[in-house]
From TrEMBL:
The keyword Ion transport does not apply. It is a peripheral membrane protein. GO terms for cellular component: plasma membrane. Residues 19-309 form the FERM domain. It is found in: Cell membrane. Residues 322-357 have a biased composition (Basic and acidic residues). The lineage of its organism: Eukaryota, Metazoa, Chordata, Craniata, Vertebrata. This is Merlin-like. The keyword Cell membrane applies. Residues 363-372 have a biased composition (Gly residues). It comes from Salarias fasciatus (Jewelled blenny). Pfam families: FERM_C, FERM_M, FERM_N. Residues 322-372 are annotated as: Disordered. Coiled coil: none annotated.
């Protein structure tokens, strides 16, 4: 009996103290060995440190559960959540919340880059609707970010053949060959001469943030027990109610600034407007997991909405100052390189023409962006 007991104790001791995790970001895959006692925050912080990301409040670790997805909760142990039972457990490191104004809020280059990759994928996967004109302009900025300045001697016809640059819906809308599309994109691309990678990615995001479906998480809901199908959209601005077949124009919107509170009981949500003369809006969602997700996104988006309207924290102020210094340093280096080119003779005017072309391109780009 004593022998059995000691062997049972030995077995107990051999239980693994770690578990394996695979984290997929927009441009890399990483594997970690985590301690069994780790909370979501421990894993999330480790990923952020590895990636070099400081603007952590936009991001989360997403995993699949049944027929939906969930975000890893920071305060709860990883293994106590409904994470897949695989080894390694797979998480996607993604933007969970979107800024209202990308150029003001996204400070670090790595943050901008991850947003750029995620939004670009959503546009190509048609999760964000984009008109053909805007798609071509966005593609030209993506090409500038990837290939640098256009050089007709180097970027020969067919150089974009392997790149996925336009949504399939746009490609199928017109009777145009791949070469014709490339020509269209290259005409814009040539106008972006002199724009650095991070600037090209920021220009891309500035256009994309004006698209109606940008940054919106959609959920199927019903307005009453008789099942009138509707869609709920949650984003940085507030809550929006759509007809099931139209994700572009909401029938009703509740901006965060106009909401007194959102309460949730079992399957019923209640939105109470600040203006007491306005009707209370109720909707129903039948899946508990989805309801938790809706609530999480409401709280997180509302918190960020309030935070934006306060003075930046010391950490954000420091980040902005560092980013400004880094930009100035790079601009200085580029200027020195530019003077080096001038000394080679006969290139100064050519550079000025390029600069004019770029300014014209930017102005036109703005017009197309506004038109979208």
């Amino acid at each position: 009996f004593a022998g059995k007991l000691s062997s049972r104790n030995r077995l107990k001791k051999k239980q693994p103290k770690t578990f394996k995790v695979k984290v997929i970001t927009m441009d890399a895959e990483m594997e970690f060995s985590c301690e069994v006692k780790w909370k979501g925050k421990d894993l999330f912080d480790l990923v952020c440190r590895t990636v070099g990301l400081r603007e952590t409040w936009f991001f989360g670790l997403r995993y699949t559960v049944k027929d939906t997805y969930a975000w890893l909760k920071p305060e709860k142990r990883v293994l106590d959540q409904e994470v897949p039972k695989d080894s390694p457990i797979t998480f996607h490191f993604l933007a969970k919340f979107f800024p209202e104004k990308v150029e003001e809020e996204l400070v670090q280059e790595i943050t901008q880059h991850l947003f750029f990759l995620q939004v670009k994928k959503q546009i190509l996967d048609e999760e964000i609707f984009c008109s053909p004109e805007a798609s071509v302009l966005l593609a030209s900025y993506a090409v500038q970010a990837k290939y640098g300045d256009y050089d007709p001697n180097f970027h020969k016809p067919g150089f974009l053949a392997q790149d996925e640059l336009l949504p399939k819906r746009v490609l199928m809308q017109y009777q145009m060959t791949a070469d014709m599309w490339e020509e269209k994109i290259t005409a814009w691309y040539a106008e972006h001469r002199g724009i650095a990678r991070d600037e090209a990615e920021m220009e891309y995001l500035k256009i994309a943030q004006d698209l109606e479906m940008y940054g919106v998480s959609y959920f199927s809901i019903t307005q009453n027990k008789r099942d009138t199908e509707l869609l709920l959209g949650v984003d940085a601005q507030g809550l929006h109610i759509y007809s099931p077949n139209s994700k572009l124009n909401p029938n009703k919107s509740f901006p965060w600034s106009g909401i007194r509170n959102i309460s949730y009981s079992e399957k019923e949500f209640t939105i109470k407007p600040l203006d007491k003369k306005k009707d209370v809006f109720k909707f129903y969602s039948s899946q508990l997991r989805v309801n938790k997700l809706i609530l999480q996104l409401c709280i997180g988006n509302h918190d960020l909405f309030m935070r934006r309207r306060k003075v930046d924290s010391i950490e954000v102020q420091q980040m902005k100052a560092q980013a400004k210094e880094e930009k100035a340093r790079r601009a200085g280096e580029a200027e020195v390189r530019g003077h080096g080119h001038e000394d080679q003779g006969g290139e100064e005017t050519h550079g000025a023409e390029d600069e004019g072309g770029r300014a014209a391109g930017r102005q036109t780009g703005g017009a197309v962006g506004a038109q979208v």
